[in-house]
């Protein structure tokens, strides 16, 4: 199954809109600063199409903002006062949080397309059966023998070396 290619511009635009609407009323300025800083790195990743570092930094920033958004929503979510603007702002912040893992997946795919090779290992052992580059130490090369380990000609005299 082929993974659909999502444009990095679309990811940045959607999260920018949701962050703007999410921090309208009840979330503090640290929510906006954190998310907009990561989105600025996303703009850098858009501008430099060949940069692996920009995409990796954008991915790591998105992962950090997932945790920070959970903390912000857990602390500042209003429990008693609900009007239409607060509900809309809270809904956009929650929708932003729910879309971030999928966006991280697509940003990781873009990182792999740009040549990044950061294999994620969750600790599960895997065995590979690819032995194409395996070279046995039991077989020795015929050109060298134990009596002549440096492949020198037997008739040659050791000459004076000029340095």
Written description of the protein model:
With 163 residues, the chain is mostly helical. The protein has a domain at 8-114. The chain is 55% helix and 0% strand. The protein is built from 4 helices and no strands. It has helices at 8-22, 29-47, 52-76, 84-113. Helix 1 runs antiparallel to helix 2, helix 1 packs antiparallel against helix 4 (84-113) and helix 3 (52-76) packs antiparallel against helix 4 (84-113). The radius of gyration is 28 Å and the shape is elongated. It starts with 7 loop residues before the first helix and ends in a 50-residue tail after the last helix. The model has no long low-confidence stretch (mean pLDDT 81).
Instruction: Name the average pLDDT.
Output: 81
Which geometry do the CA atoms define?
A: elongated
Structural class comes to mainly alpha
In terms of DSSP E residues, the strand content is: under 5%
Largest sheet: none
Low-confidence stretches: none
Give the H and E element order: HHHH
Protein name: Angiotensin II receptor-associated protein
Transmembrane segments: 30-47, 54-79, 85-108
Biased composition (Polar residues): 133-153
Membrane topology: Multi-pass membrane protein
